Amino acid sequence: MIKSKIGAAKELLIAFLIFNFSMLLSGCKSYHRNSAHKEVSLSSIEKGEDLAKLYCQSCHQLPDPSLLDSKTWENGVLPAMGPRLGIFRYGFNVYPKTRDEYIGRDFYPAEPMLKMSEWQNILDYFEATSPDSLPGQKRKYPIKKGLPLFQVEIPNIHYEMPATCFVKINSADSIHRVVISDAVRKKLYFFNAALHVTDSLNTSGPVVNLDFDKENLIACNIGILNPNNGKFGKEEFINSDSHGAWQIDSSKTIDSLQRPVQITSADLNHDGKTDYLVCEFGNLKGALSWLENKGNNKFERHVIREVPGAIKAYITDYNHDGLPDIWALFAQGDEGIFLFTNKGNGTFEQQEVLKFPPSYGSSYFELDDFNKDGHPDILYTCGDNADYSRVLKPYHGVYIFMNDGTNHFKQKYFFPINGCYKAIARDYDGDGDLDIATISFFADYLHQPEESFVYLENKGNFDFHPYSFPQATMGRWISMDAGDVDGDGRTDIILGNFSIGPVIMKHKVDWKDSPPFVILKNVGK
Q1: Does residue 524 contact residue 149 with C-beta atoms inside 8 Å?
Q2: What is the Cα–Cα distance from 27 to 42, expressed in whole angstroms?
Q3: What CA–CA distance (Å, rounded) separates 219 from 213?
């Protein structure tokens, strides 16, 4: 009897302790912060989520914490975000900020936009709810080694540490079929179909894009390649002299452009004169702008969208009203693809057709018609990994978004490629549908270096089979173009080797001793 009472008392005590412990946990509502393994209250996390919606979403799409691991949030992204909210120091951490005359004193808030306790709520939200590590890629098919459709051709030129920042196949020029630009040497090289140098030209800065018009080449000189806010970029006009040699016409140079990456000629205001659309990527500041031709080599700059990151644009009359419209990709912070409808007199109406989280690192897009319905679909790549979140991301790769006929787009296809930088859709094998060639600048060079170049063969019904070639590892491909190099009617591919720059994963090949570019010659039927 005594023993049974003692046993009952013990059970009652245990039940009491369990009840009170559970109530204690319920009251504290604590979670582990993944990075520092500190306990964080659920209340702080909930407040942080609300504050993130208020402050983060005011500048770009609200990122889901699961897009990055907790250490990257803590050590990379959030310290970069702090100064945007007027927070330059928190605890023992000093947050980085840029100081230069091109962003202005009013770029950063003079005072914190929120309380320090609220900033801690935001830190708690992202750090406590993000994973310890990101998941790996999930591919339907592994990348097969072997590329029977193409044969690798190496040019008759070699120099140490190539920094090829632009490549172009100009099938219309029988003498200068290939053009490349080297960022370190600040030089353009021209090659014939046999890949021998036919001419070269010194430039004042890295040329990262060329627009081929009827009279001359229009060079997009970025000024300084590394991220900056300065207006060192130029539009330079290159023509040939009486002996056929290329030269820069200094009398037509347009300067003071904010780190431009693309310049396209078009009569944007319908006045009969050639204007220029400029993607001024910038860094913290930038814009999509156009230069109105006022005559006598005078140009007036007009801003279409004043945010950094304009990286690629196309000019088409999508609504067939006789006025040139603009499709543009922005890749810095507020990432997305925008359609600017020309309303006449140099004015444009803005429509955002696709929006991406800032961690995507948007890198390129094309307008292609995959289902042949007459409406442009979007081929898109993301993979820039040089900023504040240098980790391999499973959502990097190549995407296809289908147009419903009213410029509303829905994702139809995705193939994961770490650090994907560009994709070009062409009917490479001549079977009547679009295949895709891709490159990666931030590939997983240690475990799967073959993803630095992937050829996606279209088997129909959006079933693409991936292939690469053994020599894909010999270069670090940052630029690519497709065209007919030798005039045989087949679409060839050129890859540009930029052998320097930050890497995410180690690599086994010394790209600095590799050629500045290679040609994938199409040997198909």
Answers
A1: yes
A2: 10
A3: 11
pLDDT on residue 25: 36
Alpha carbon 365 to chain centroid distance?
9
CA–CA gap between residue 145 and residue 466 (Å, rounded) = 9
| Residues constituting the chain | 525
375: which residues sit within 8 A by CB, 6+ positions away?
369, 403, 404, 405, 407
CA distances from 127 to 70, 90, 233, 271, 391 (A): 5, 15, 39, 55, 16
Compute how many other C-beta atoms are within 10 angstroms of the C-beta atom of residue 237. 19
Which two three-digit tokens encode residue 231? 């207006």
Q: CB-based contacts of 496: which residues, under 8 Å, 6+ apart? A: 164, 165, 166, 167, 180, 475, 477, 478, 479, 480, 516, 517
291 token code pair: 């230069």
What's the gap between Cα 194 and its chain centre? Answer: 32
CA pair distance 45, 35, nearest whole angstrom: 15
Residue 461 backbone dihedrals phi, psi, to 5 degrees: 55, 40
pLDDT in tens, 428-471: 999 999 999 999 999 999 999 999 999 999 999 999 999 999 99
Which pLDDT band holds residue 161 (cuts at 50, 70, 90)?
A: very high
Q: Give the dihedral sign, CA 510/514/520/521.
A: negative
**Edge-to-edge order in the sheet of strand 260-266:** 260-266, 275-280, 287-295, 298-305
Q: From residue 368, how far is each of 180, 320, 414 by CA, in Å?
A: 25, 18, 15
* Terminal C-alpha separation, the chain: 96
* Residue (of 218, 222, 212, 155) closest to 184 by Cα position: 222
Is the pLDDT at 213 greater than 80, yes or no? no
